[in-house]
Amino acid sequence: MRTLRTVSEVRAALRRPRSEGRRIGLVPTMGAFHEGHASLFRRAHQDCDEVVVSLFVNPAQFNDRADLVAYPRDERRDAAIAAELRVDYLFAPTVEEIYPHGFSTSVSVGAISEVLEGEHRGREHFDGVATVVTKLFNIIAPDIAYFGQKDAQQTLVIRRLAEDLNLPVEVEVCPTVREPDGLAMSSRNQLLSPGDRARAAALNRSLQTAQALVAAGQADVRLITAAAETELRNAAIQPEYVQIVDPDTFAPLARIDRPALAVVAARVGTVRLIDNQMLSPSPR
Ligand code: PAF
Asked: Which tens digits make up the pLDDT trace of 82-105?
């Protein structure tokens, strides 16, 4: 595996494989690799000839400086994991390489950036994601880029961005990988204290409660979200939101009469976690 630091190094390294028609897969990350990242690297390997992983903790998408400072970073460990998983190139630029002096462009994706995560983290969160992902797509020019379903709203922002700007990249969304107790894998999980780590499993339990009600025929979204919130409160977790939305637009639903996605965000101790689950009515 080669570690690349600059845009020109990436372009030089990929010139030859691209000219030979080799398919390039990109997994954009902020590091602190876990099995969720590993599943994306493996998937990229199945579809592509060259796998590029970007490792960049993007300051532009953090609305809270303390959150940016606390974000786990261990490039040496990440590089060892990526090499073990046969990643071909690790692109680990500095902040100055991505945002050089005078940088003043922002990519902003409309309505989908404004609700839920956009409302709670601030509009600049998805603007920061959209801007850095556009840059990564332009620098690496992947055939396929891989993202995890855990960040469901982010995947819609990126799909919209790629479609609206005619970016020649396929956006592939891969399933959430979970711990044995159901907690969605996230780089932030390592910041949880042992007690908070145990309580954090309630996020997934709240989504499973929603799914069980829907499978039993319940269609009233108010009753379903109330039951999911109770599951969180029983674990002394105050949700930021529990909502049931249209998976393609994130518009809130009042009844489950079409495909629906339950989304949850909550602070467990000092760590903010998100999760989601498709809700499937039982076949009648
Ligand atoms: O999901 C993430 O890790 C980040 O939001 C991403 C897509 C790498 C952009 O910084």
From this structure: 999 999 999 999 999 999 999 999
Instruction: Decide: 202 in ligand 1 pocket, CB within 6 A.
Output: no
Residue 28 Cα to ligand 1 midpoint, Å, equals: 6
Q: Is 37 a catalytic residue?
A: yes
CATH superfamily ID and name for 2-174: HUPs (3.40.50.620)
Cβ 58 under 6 angstroms from ligand 1: yes
Would you say the C-alpha torsion 223, 174, 110, 61 has a positive or negative sign? positive
pLDDT at 283 over 90: no
Task: Report yes or no: 56 and 30 within 8 Å, Cβ to Cβ.
Answer: yes
CATH of domain 187-278: 3.30.1300.10
Minimum-distance ligand 1 atom for the alpha carbon of 187: 3
129 CB under 6 A from ligand 1? yes
Angle between helices 35-47 and 75-84 (to 10 degrees): 40
Q: CA 154 to CA 12: how far, in whole Å?
A: 30
State the pairing for strand pair 2-4/271-279.
Answer: unpaired
